[in-house]
Write a structure and sequence with these properties.
- Keywords: Antenna complex, Lyase, Phycobilisome.
- One of its GO terms (molecular function) is oxidoreductase activity.
- It holds the Pfam family HEAT_2.
- InterPro entries: ARM-like, ARM-type_fold, NCAB, NCC-H_dom, PBS_lyase_HEAT.
- The chain is 63% helix and 4% strand.
- The chain is mostly helical and 980 residues long.
- The strands form 3 sheets. A 4-stranded parallel sheet has the order 6-7-8-9, with helices on both faces.
- Helix 6 packs across helix 7, helix 25 runs antiparallel to helix 26 and helix 26 packs parallel to helix 28.
């Protein structure tokens, strides 16, 4: 099956796979093989190369969609320009294909009805909180009838392949033995859903004015609806005026929350105009997106103005989804008008994503390459050309010009790398690269040039031959080393080159040259017996420690399981006393003879006795590479950890244990005990970091990092390490979130604030935590903070931007304004005045709700006597008692003290009841205390809570308030449940 969303409950007994996208060459190969007709395949390929087909090219990267396109395409046809047009053609082609077989010939009127019901089914499924693309049989039957009944809509959907049975429901779902179905492909489900939507009010309330419309969904901010919205905009049966109104509403949306949601709506509009290119606002939208992404020139201030990072990054991200021709034109204008090097770099990066083969973009980038003096810009532009200008002669010539004239070695390397990608078999490029190879003094440039010669002309004999000649004739050791090093890139496995290098190794008396050549043989001569023998010979005769290290390393690369090498290394290990040499030889022995006890024992001995910190670090690294899961190493390292008095050595040992046995309980216990004794803050942070990696969420490690963060005397480096570690191990930890917020607002260090901000964003998990962050940090987004502490302002803005991506708009609005939802100015308040029902009337109405909606997973609880409880502990235990009495009347309610305790119990309760949802309707004849509302708010991640009261309650979403006297109370409650 395909993975189309992060489902929490995959089908049981199924492995999960994802279809990988095709690249452009694979698409071409697929089309040519499909048609087996050069003329027909070439006509389709030519159409796909047209500039207005970028969207279709993106879609057909998916193998299934490409196959369907090939099946339905005919010579002389024009390709559709929208996704909806493509799917309309694919659906029509699907019926034509099925019609070839008599059992599948469906009457037209039945087909129309089937499409309508498939649309309703698809729409409702996507609107669910879970299992959007996995449809239980009972759920499908509500729209298509029984599958067993011949010629029912369900029967037709199965015969035609629109629905397919994919297995059984998961154990977490009710009726886990019932069949589960899925659409032919999730994208077809989205297409049918788009067909079922008649009014864009379904996505965005038409009467929105600056604040959320109560009881209306804002699906424009729900990611599962984005593709449906784009398909709706591409429908040819929706009037252009309706689409225009919708785009205009998106562009003009104001949210009264500093436009966090306004930007999201605008970005959606930018993607939408790609499906509705006739939109009168398209030019202005693209221009605005480019302005946000790259800045603009302020005529009054005579400076280039840039926007906050989240806005700019969001705008640059959406560029690839909007109308590319307009984007490219605007980006070229920015490229040619701004002198800001970062804008040049960002524009080049964006063009690299959307302008493959575009001559205007290539020409503009070439002009920048030829005129800029900035080396960073040159490198980025060269890199971009490597992605969009494959085989382009003008680009190749411009790059060659830079390569021959620049004196900056970084630029030379970048340009050489680019030529390696776009100038395959280009003779002029090969000659120039060889010339650079022979003249440059920079080792890294020579290596990069050699690597790219290998890409342009793999195994380039001309280059290899010239290098070998120099090696054989020169007596200059520097030249020998340089040219030997160059062979690494282009002569892997080349016998002649290996033989020449062996001769150099055997004849030179210069230890530097020996080390260089040995290192190169370790990369190009894997398994070569002559090379192994030559290296062993040097190892047995040299007295130079550094040469021993390099030889040992190279043997580790090319002599795996080689008996001769194992014997010689063992002999060296038993006879030498030099700790550095012993460490390197032991490392090599462990690589070529995994589990070698002599090697591991040597490491343990060196680690215990060494006084050199650098040696200890190196030995620790080596053990981590060769002793994964080795019982002897684990046992000895635990012994050292429990006996050493040296915190530095203990820290390194703990780190090794974390690498070689991350799930070993004895090791984890030893690390915890060691952490409790450490006094040095740096060592403490290292060990806590190790503990956090192998035991995420470990409270001791989290406490250690929080202590480091809140100790003013600690250096920024230690605080940054602590923040980064918390970002990995403290996801969802309330105390960590509170501490990071406190440090964010109080630290004087910009580096620490940046690290804290980035990692705070990683550990916020629940809606409640997102709302807490909004509530706590909102006060920093003021003009005063902007002017006096911009660093704090921008980091708070970034975090609140993230919160807006993860919170429903009404919820964010309510937290932002610290009050309940403001009634929309166009909505009349229909709450009756002076008509408060009595408690008895309320209870009777409550009973009626429960008895009239027995088909819903709804449970009603009277909490009148709980409303006056003014401590959370009192309410939470009383509420737990009522909840268990209702759901498990024969059980004993557990003892709970905090909302978190009850949350855990409810999770277990849902597992016990085998239900993913619990809807609880609370009856109250008055207003609950703030403590009661807070407790309920905390539980909304595991319960759906609704209230029935005489008057509307100021509840934070997603809790829902119902007025007992409203006429449509039953329908409103039922609608609330069905939303999920």
């Amino acid at each position: 099956m395909n993975v189309w969303e992060g489902e929490k409950n995959p089908l049981r007994d199924f492995d999960v796979y994802r279809n990988l996208d095709f690249n452009s060459q694979q698409i071409q190969d697929f089309i040519e093989q499909w048609f087996n007709d050069a003329t027909q395949s070439q006509e389709l390929l030519n159409q796909l190369k047209e500039s207005n087909q970028t969207r279709i090219n993106d879609l057909i990267k998916n193998p299934l969609r490409l196959a369907l396109l090939c099946r339905t395409w005919k010579r002389g046809q024009k390709l559709p320009e929208t996704q909806a047009g493509l799917y309309q053609r694919l659906v029509k082609g699907h019926y034509q294909w099925k019609d070839e077989q008599k059992p599948f010939q469906i009457p037209f009127e039945v087909q129309e009805c089937l499409h309508q019901q498939l649309g309703e089914l698809a729409k409702t499924a996507i609107n669910r909180e879970q299992f959007r693309f996995r449809l239980e049989e009972k759920f499908v039957e509500q729209y298509l009838g029984k599958p067993q009944r011949e010629n029912s809509l369900f029967d037709w959907a199965l015969k035609l392949g629109w629905l397919n049975r994919v297995g059984l429901a998961s154990v977490e779902e009710k009726d886990s033995d019932q069949a589960v179905y899925a659409f032919f492909h999730p994208t077809f489900q989205e297409y049918f859903a788009a067909l079922a939507i008649n009014d864009w009010d379904y996505f965005l309330p038409r009467n929105h004015v600056n604040c959320p419309v109560e009881r209306k969904e804002y699906r424009i901010f729900q990611p599962q609806w984005k593709q449906v919205i784009l398909l709706w905009l591409g429908r040819d049966d929706v009037e252009a005026g309706e689409k225009e109104e919708f785009i205009k509403a998106l562009v003009e949306l104001r949210d009264s929350c500093q436009d966090f949601y306004g930007y999201r709506a605008y970005f959606l509009a930018a993607a939408g105009i790609n499906e509705f290119k006739e939109c009168s606002l398209s030019d202005a939208i693209v221009e605005q997106i480019v302005k946000w992404g790259f800045g603009c020139f302020d005529i009054k201030e005579q400076t280039w103005v840039k926007f906050l990072a989240p806005i700019a990054e969001g705008a640059r991200t959406i560029l690839s989804e909007t109308i590319r021709e307009k984007v490219i034109a605007n980006l070229i204008r920015v490229l040619e008008t701004t002198e800001d090097k970062y804008n040049h770099i960002w524009v080049a990066e964006s063009l690299g994503e959307i302008a493959v083969g575009n001559e205007l973009a290539i020409g503009s980038l070439i002009r920048v390459l030829e005129t800029t003096e900035d080396t960073d810009t040159r490198r980025k532009v060269a890199d971009t050309l490597g992605g969009i200008a494959v085989g382009n002669e003008l680009a190749i010539q411009a790059l060659i010009q830079v390569l021959e004239t620049t004196e900056d070695e970084h630029t030379r390397r970048e340009v050489a790398d680019t030529l390696g990608g776009i100038a395959v078999r280009n003779e002029l490029a090969i000659q120039v690269l060889i010339r650079v190879l022979e003249t440059t003094e920079d080792t890294y440039t020579r290596r990069e040039v050699a690597n790219n010669l290998g890409k342009i002309d793999v195994g380039n004999e001309l280059a290899i031959g010239s290098l070998i000649r120099v090696l054989e004739t020169t007596e200059n050791e520097d030249t020998r080393r340089k040219f030997a090093n160059t062979l690494k890139g282009i002569a892997v496995g080349n016998e002649l080159a290996i033989q020449v290098l062996i001769r150099v190794l055997e004849t030179t008396e210069n230890e530097d040259t020996r080390r260089w050549v040995a290192n190169i043989l370790g990369e190009i001569a894997v398994g070569n017996e002559l090379a192994v023998g030559a290296l062993i010979q040097v190892l047995q005769t040299t007295e130079d420690e550094s040469t021993c290290e390099v030889i040992a390393y190279s043997l580790g690369e090319i002599a795996v399981r080689n008996e001769l090498a194992i014997g010689v290394l063992t002999q060296v290990l038993e006879t030498t006393e030099n700790k550095w040499v012993r460490s390197w030889v032991a490392h090599t022995l462990g690589k070529i003879d995994p589990g070698n006890e002599l090697a591991i024992g040597t490491f343990i001995q060196v680690l215990e006795t060494a006084r050199n910190q650098i040696l200890c670090n190196e030995v620790a690294r080596m053990i981590g590479e060769i002793a994964v899961g080795n019982e002897l190493a684990i046992r000895e390292l635990i012994r050292i950890l429990e006996t050493t008095e040296n915190e530095d050595i203990g820290s390194r040992v703990a780190e090794i244990l974390g690498e070689i046995c991350p799930e070993n309980e004895l090791a984890i216990g030893a690390i915890i005990r060691f952490l409790e004794t450490i006094e040095d803050q740096f060592c403490r942070s290292l060990v806590a970091c190790t503990l956090g990696k192998i035991d995420p969420g470990n409270e001791l490690a989290i406490q250690a990092f929080l202590g480091i963060l809140e100790t003013p005397e600690n250096k920024d480096y230690c605080k940054n390490v602590a923040a980064e570690s918390l970002g990995r191990i403290a996801v969802g930890n309330e105390l960590a979130i509170e501490t990071l917020i406190r440090v964010l607002e109080t630290t004087k260090s910009k580096d620490t604030r940046q690290s804290v901000s980035e990692n705070l964003g990683k550990i916020i998990k629940t809606q409640k935590q997102y709302t807490d962050v909004v509530f706590t940090l909102k006060h920093n987004l003021t003009d005063e903070v902007y002017e006096n502490n911009f660093n704090l302002y921008k980091h708070c803005y970034s975090l609140l931007w993230q919160c807006a991506q993860n919170l429903p708009y009404p919820k964010f609005y309510q937290v932002w304004h610290h009050n309940t939802l403001t009634p929309h100015p166009e909505i009349t308040n229909n709450t009756p005045v002076g008509n408060t029902p009595t408690v008895r009337q309320l209870e009777q109405q409550f009973t009626d709700i429960c008895t009239q909606l027995p088909h819903l997973p709804l449970h009603c609880i009277n909490i009148n006597k709980l409303l006056t409880l003014n401590t959370k502990n009192e309410f939470i235990q009383a509420f737990c008692n009522r909840l268990y009495q209702k759901l498990l009347p024969d059980g004993t309610p557990p003892e709970v003290q905090t909302p978190a305790n009850l949350e855990t119990k409810i999770i277990h309760l849902k597992q016990q009841l085998q239900t993913p949802h619990l809807f609880i309707l609370l009856l109250a004849d008055g207003t609950p205390t703030p403590e009661v509302i807070d407790c309920c708010d905390y539980l909304t991640d595991v319960l759906h809570l609704g209230w029935v009261t005489p008057d509307p309650l100021p509840l934070p979403p997603p809790q829902r308030s119902f007025v007992a006297s409203q006429d449509n109370l039953l329908e409103a409650v039922e609608s609330w449940v069905r939303e999920y």
